[in-house]
Design goal:
The complex is a heterodimer of chains A (341) and B (321). Chain A is 30% helix and 21% strand. Chain A is an alpha/beta fold and 341 residues long. Chain A has two domains: 258 residues, 3-Layer(aba) Sandwich (Rossmann fold); 56 residues, no CATH class. In chain A, helix 3 packs across helix 4, helix 3 packs parallel to helix 5 and helix 5 runs parallel beside helix 6. Chain A is globular, with a radius of gyration of 22 Å. In chain B, the strands form two sheets. In chain B, strands 6-7-8-3-9-10-12-11 form an eight-stranded mixed sheet, sandwiched between helices. In chain B, a hairpin with a 4-residue loop joins strand 11 and strand 12. In chain B, helix 3 packs across helix 4. Classes of the chains: A alpha/beta (341), B alpha/beta (321). At the A-B interface, helix 6, helix 7 and helix 9 of A face helix 7, helix 8, helix 9 and helix 10 of B. Bound molecules: adenosine-5'-triphosphate, adenosine-5'-diphosphate, iron/sulfur cluster (SF4) (2 copies) and magnesium ion (2 copies).
Chain lengths: 341, 321
């Protein structure tokens, strides 16, 4: 394996929701503390070698976007650190995102919200490189044209406004804007989630072409398991802020190791299997304000034992390429002992 | 098998600055009791307008211009407004993508469900609460009695959608129109709801039109499929047959572009171009500019071919296999 370009080291992110004025007053009187802490990301470590596309998968609120924003330097982690090519991704003393983080570009789900409606598409694409002096002024126009063509749009579209494009075309513009920065890492956050299937296929094909041409490294955040299987080399599964399993895509889909991963696969309808018998995961996703003690999945896990309710499972290597955080892979859940007793 | 819902030649138009656009164009299908029909298509294809038209919920600038909607044999369009209203909720009910379209945020779940019961039936308040609790139990809500006391914002998104489905079920309607009811939910919650809905239909014999853009959901939930494109149903048949051997070039293209069916990393077969604007449809077959099989004759309106059991709207359908 080549040296990782992105290194995420024991990163956590907590958000504190401060209570309203009334509660604050009450707190002062009673000496209580009503502020709530959301544990959005907890103790995540990942490394991504150059040229890899790593999928980040999980259900709503599990911390995917928060992790993406930490890697992009938009959020400062509450603990742990992120390095890109050995350089820390962080904010400078004035709170500005370090110039370094222009090396990471993020592409969002909503192609409508992420483009300034009053700017021509050509200006949108040229803005970043101009501000950061990446392209000499005289070359800007030809560069913009080349980028538009690279993402499958006509160069002449540079003079149009975003509302003159369809959703799929807008997402191509967003990709062109990101590529204009010559990023070392792309973070795609649900980049195809709002597109219709036929348009989604076009944008996925574009992404696969570009990654080959440009040897892109990317975090591909998605809740869609079949999209992730199609475009990612490796996948990290998240649950309630933690990465519970990491594996090469083909191995993961062939044989998931973590009970949550198996359960997730079991509850997704797929084309071509006919009328499925669903094996939905029981129960609801717990609140990240009060995550369950021990293994956060234990209230929904069919294999949970006494140890799962008290002890957070370590991340252990299941092979040289796979890791998993589950007591079953690390000496047992204690259910066996319970049965024996 | 009894036909619970029959739609014949349904056509709905919207007045726009540039004249009338036809959002639902000569749509016909029927759904039998105890079956689920998946109405699939990409955004803007006319799925929701079809659902609203069936419910008689089209407002200005929209208008149903033609067709019949027969619920248990009664043409909804022949009824006076109050007779229509009394069929809505009792004989045919709707579930929306956003459950808050059904739920009132300032009322307890039990109160609003009881009110929904008493709109159509003269029963005591406590009997209505009992009915509400039963309905919640039917859709698999644990501790139903407690949930009745809750306000909608105290429930998770999945739980709210179950309450909306339970509300639709209160009068054991013959037909439920469900418009993307699980699209905004997480897969684990979606899986739970799909399983409950399937069980429910098998037990109660309700007919469901399940509107969705998600082919995978339809293929694992529905008995029958109708595929919409630019306001028309271009292909219909049993889910198993349409998915396994689609005959309309659009359906074929749609199924082919789903990533799950291909070797990872391979280029996905893609439909060129994008969905047409209703105000600006090509002549003849609206799929023509994107269709690999198009010929000159496709500039004229394509005929229905195939069989009643597997019908396709195309001049050059793919071979039946
Ligand atoms: N700025 C913020 N302030 C407070 N809480 C936040 C903030 N951003 C995220 N959270 C909380 O952190 C948790 C993780 O959120 P995040 O957006 O990372 O989830 P996600 O996995 O991207 O979900 P989705 O699939 O819905 O996009 C959630 O509980 C969310 O409400
Ligand atoms: N109130 C309205 N006024 C004008 N056009 C409308 C209105 N509602 C829907 N339409 C148009 O009807 C078509 C079908 O819409 P819809 O049924 O919502 O599609 P979907 O298949 O995504 O549910 C679209 O082109 C939409 O723009
Ligand atoms: S640690 Fe225990 S509860 Fe958690 S996933 Fe493994 S078996 Fe289930
Ligand atoms: S009618 Fe012609 S253009 Fe339309 S789908 Fe059939 S072959 Fe294609
Ligand atoms: Mg997110
Ligand atoms: Mg719709």
């Amino acid at each position: 394996m080549t040296d990782p370009i992105l290194q995420i080291d024991a990163v956590s992110k907590r958000f504190t929701r401060s209570p309203g004025v009334l509660l604050k007053g009450l707190d002062r009187l009673t000496g209580r503390d009503s502020s709530q802490t959301v544990h959005a990301v907890t103790d995540v470590s990942l490394s991504v070698p150059r040229g890899e596309v790593l999928g980040i998968v999980g259900e709503s609120g599990c911390g995917k976007s928060t992790l993406g924003r930490i890697v992009s330097g938009i959020y400062t982690p509450s603990a742990g650190k992120v390095t890109l090519d050995g350089d820390p991704v962080a904010r400078d003393s004035r709170g500005n995102v370090d110039k370094l983080t222009t090396r990471v570009q993020m592409i969002h789900q909503d192609p409508f919200a992420s483009l300034n409606p009053r700017m021509k598409v050509g200006e949108i694409i040229a803005e970043g490189p101009r501000i950061h002096g990446l392209i000499p002024a005289k070359d800007v126009q030809s560069k913009v044209r080349a980028l538009l063509e690279q993402v499958g749009l006509e160069g002449a579209y540079a003079n149009r406004l975003p509302h003159q494009f369809s959703g799929g075309q807008r997402q191509r513009v967003a990709i062109a804007r990101a590529l204009a920065m010559q990023p070392e890492l792309l973070v795609l956050d649900e980049a195809v989630a709002s597109l219709d299937v036929s348009i989604q296929a076009q944008v996925l094909n574009l992404f696969m072409d570009l990654r080959k041409q440009l040897d892109l490294t990317a975090l591909f955040i998605s809740h869609d398991l079949s999209v992730v299987r199609h475009v990612c080399d490796r996948v990290a599964i998240m649950y309630l802020g933690r990465v519970v399993e990491t594996a090469p895509a083909n191995q993961l889909y062939e044989k998931p190791l973590h009970p949550y991963t198996s359960a997730l696969f079991g509850s997704v309808p797929t084309l071509g299997t006919g009328r499925a018998r669903f094996q939905p995961i029981k129960g609801e996703i717990p609140s990240p304000i009060n995550p369950p003690k021990g293994c956060a999945f234990h209230p929904r896990c069919p294999l949970a034992g006494p140890r799962c309710r008290v002890e957070v499972p370590r991340v252990v290597n299941a092979s040289s390429e796979r890791s998993v955080a589950c007591h079953i892979q690390d000496g047992g859940t204690g259910a066996e002992n319970e049965a024996a007793a | 098998m009894t036909v619970a819902l029959e739609v014949k030649g349904l056509t709905t138009q919207f007045g726009t600055r540039n004249g009338a656009v036809t959002a639902v164009n000569d749509v016909s299908f029927s759904v039998q009791s105890g079956r689920i029909m998946g109405l699939v298509g990409e955004s803007g294809s006319g799925k929701s307008v079809t659902g609203f038209s069936i419910m008689g919920l089209i407002d200005e600038p929209g208008r149903i211009t033609d067709g019949q909607v027969l619920v248990q044999g009664t043409n909804m369009r022949d009824l006076k407004p109050d007779a229509q209203r009394s069929m809505r909720g009792r004989n045919v009910a709707m579930v929306f993508q956003d459950p808050m379209m059904t739920l009132n945020p300032v009322l307890r779940v039990g109160d609003q469900m009881a009110m929904a019961v008493r709109v159509h039936e003269k029963v005591s308040k406590s009997a209505a609460w009992d009915r509400a609790r039963e309905a919640l139990e039917i859709v698999g809500i644990p501790a139903a009695g407690e949930r009745l006391q809750a306000y909608p914002h105290q429930l998770s998104g999945g739980m709210r959608q179950r309450v909306a489905i339970a509300t639709a079920l209160l009068h054991r309607p013959a037909v439920i129109i469900a418009d993307e009811p699980t699209t905004a939910l997480d897969v684990s919650i979606q899986g739970q709801i799909l399983a409950e809905v399937r069980r429910l239909v098998d037990e109660t014999g309700t007919a469901i039109v399940w509107v969705t853009h998600d082919l995978a959901v339809v293929s694992s939930l529905a008995d029958d499929i109708a595929v919409m494109y630019a306001g028309r149903i271009v292909e219909s048949g049993t889910a198993a047959e349409v998915i396994a051997s689609p005959r309309h070039p659009y359906t074929r293209g749609l199924i082919d572009s789903v990533p799950g069916l291909h070797e990872p990393g391979q280029k996905l077969p893609q439909i060129p171009g994008s969905t047409p604007q209703l105000a600006n449809l090509p002549s003849g077959c609206p799929f023509r500019p994107r269709c690999p099989r198009a010929t000159e004759i496709c500039a004229t309106q394509p005929p229905h071919s195939g069989t009643d059991a597997h019908s396709v709207l195309c001049h050059h359908p793919l071979e039946a296999s």
